[in-house]
Amino acid sequence: MRLSRYVGFGSLKRFRTLRGAIFLFLIVGSVCHSQNCGTGDVRQDRENSLRRSGIAFLDSISRKDMKTLLGDVSDRGLVFGVDKTRLSRDELRNQFMRHVGAYCLFFSTACISHMGNFKGLEPDEFLSQWKISYFDWLALNKSHTTRAGLSDDAGVEGCEGNFYAEAQAGVKSAPNQIELYFYFEKGRWWLVGTVAGVP
Questions:
Q1: Which residues, at least 6 apart from 40, have a Cβ–Cβ distance to it below 8 Å?
Q2: Which end of the chain is more exposed for a tag (fewer CB within 10 A), N or C?
Q3: What is the architecture of the domain spanning 38-194?
Q4: Residue ranges of the domains in the chain?
Q5: What's the pLDDT tens digit per position in 157-197?
Q6: What does the radius of gyration of the chain's CA atoms come to, in whole angstroms?
Q7: DSSP 142
Q8: How far apart are CA 72 and CA 188, in angstroms?
Q9: How far apart are CA 158 and CA 33, in angstroms?
Q10: Which of 153, 173, 151 is nearest to 161 (CA)?
Q11: Mean local confidence (pLDDT), 26-31
C-alpha cells in the first residue's frame, strides 16, 4: 500500500524533504571527514602512513627508481621551494630523461650547480643550500632519522603532511634535513613539494 494512504500529502512532502536533507548531511559529513587529518586512531594511522610514504620516496631515490618516484608525485605537480613554478609529472619526467634540473637535485651532484638553469629550480635561500644531491646526502647519512607531522592548515581543502629525514651529524654541503611535503588524497599520500616548498 502506498504511504500517501496513511499520511496526508503535506506530510509526505515533508518526509521526502527530510529524507533528502538527511542524505545530504551524511554525504557532506563524509566528504568533510575525508578531507581533514582526522582525530584519534584515524589521525595516528595517517601520520604513520605519511612516515612510511616519506621513507619509501627516499628509498626510490636511493635506488634511482625514477618510475616509482614519478608515480608518487601528485596530479597537482611538484614545487621546489618558495614561489617556484609547479612542475607537472610530464615536465619532471622530461627533466629526468634529459638528466637536468630536478634530476640533479634528486640523483646527481655532478650537475647540481646547473640545475637552476631549468624550470622550477631557480636558486633561492633554501635551494641554493643544496650542493649535493639527495642521492649523495642519503649515502652520507645512512643512519638518518625520520619524523612526520600532519597539518590541518589546509582546512576544508584537505590534509597536508610534512616528512623530514634528519642527519645525525652536520653536513657542510647541504642542509641537515630533507623536507618533503605531502597531500592526502584518494586514500593515499602524494608528494607535492620539497626544499621548503609550499604545497
A1: none
A2: N
A3: Roll (3.10)
A4: 1-35, 38-194
A5: 578 999 999 998 778 899 999 999 999 988 999 999 998 75
A6: 23
A7: T
A8: 10
A9: 9
A10: 151
A11: 34
Tallying the residues shown for the chain, one arrives at: 199
Give CA angle at 138 (82, 195), nearest 5°.
0
Helix (H) or strand (E) holding 48: helix 40-62
pTM here is 0.78
Query: Which pLDDT tens digit goes with each residue over 34-69?
Result: 457 888 999 999 999 999 999 999 999 999 999 999
Under 8 Å CB-to-CB from 137, ≥6 apart: which residues? 167, 171, 174, 178
Q: Give the model confidence (pLDDT) of 111-144 as tens digits.
A: 999 999 999 999 898 899 999 999 999 999 988 9
Q: Are 75 and 190 in contact (CB under 8 A)?
A: yes
Q: Is 53 helix (H, G, I), strand (E, B) or coil?
A: helix
